[in-house]
Amino acid sequence: MNADRLRPVVLTLAAGALAAVLTGCQQGGAAAGGAAPSAPAASTAAPGPAGSGGGGTPTAAPTDAPTAAPTVAPVAKKPAAPKTSKPAPAPKPKTTAPAPACVDSTPGPDDVDPDEFALYRIEELDGSTGKVNLVVQHGAWGCGPADSDGGPFVVTGEESRWALDQAAYVTATNPIVAGTENQRIGVQELIDWVNAHPDSGLVFRYETGGDGAIHRLEEVFTP
Fold it and tell me: Fewer CB near the last or first residue (10 Å), C or N of the chain?
């Protein structure tokens, strides 16, 4: 009797419990299935190239392009001032007064012609010097008779020695060569003639070079 009375109560409690279980499952499923989808995490990768559907390999953010160091324009060099050639210095005038046309007595120092001398001998030097010594005596032209071609060359003072360059320009006339016109001869030819005719006293006009030696020697023709 008591058991029959208790059965409906037990069934009612079991049905309620089952309903509660079913209701909880439905709510749990709705909660699980009906929850709002969470926003997708923002991708840190850069989007793929256009037209690739967004699925391209992410590329790194571009870096700043390296800037080239500014070039410095070369400093233009100041052109050097053009060198101006200095004119050759004017030859210094000779301080010696010109020799007179002729002398009628022994010439004095002021009468001596500085560009002419009488040649007497030649002294050969060591070949390495490239020179020989002329033994000479200075003087002046004497006055001859009016109907003559001129007077003799009158020497004065002591003999002196002048170096003659062996490559000098030398000319000679009679009696060294035939004829009255000056002809070019070699220094050795002059040496040979003077050695064969010592103390002849032939008159020569001369010019010296920068080394002080005679570089030009021309015989003066005398009848």
Answer: N
Q: Are strands 214-219 and 160-172 parallel, antiparallel or unpaired?
A: parallel
pTM: 0.54
185 or 58, which is more confident: 185
Q: What CA–CA distance (Å, rounded) separates 58 from 20?
A: 52
Residue 176 Cα distances to 113, 196, 212, angstroms: 23, 11, 26
Residue ranges of alpha helices (H) inside the chain are 2-34, 187-196
Whether residue 205 contacts residue 139, with contact meaning beta carbons closer than 8 Å, is answered with: no
Give tens-digit pLDDT for 15-65. Answer: 565 555 555 545 554 444 444 444 444 444 445 444 444 444 455 555 555
Which residues make Cβ contacts (< 8 Å) with residue 111, sequence separation at least 6?
99, 100, 103, 140, 156
Rounded Cα–Cα distance for residues 152 and 154 (Å): 6
Token pair for 210: 């920068």
Rounded CA-CA distance 9/6 in Å is: 5
Q: Which residues pair with 54 in a beta bridge?
A: none
Contact indicator for 165, 131 with CB cutoff of 8 Å:
yes
With 0-12 CB in 10 A as exposed, 13-18 as middle and 19+ as buried, what is 174?
A: middle
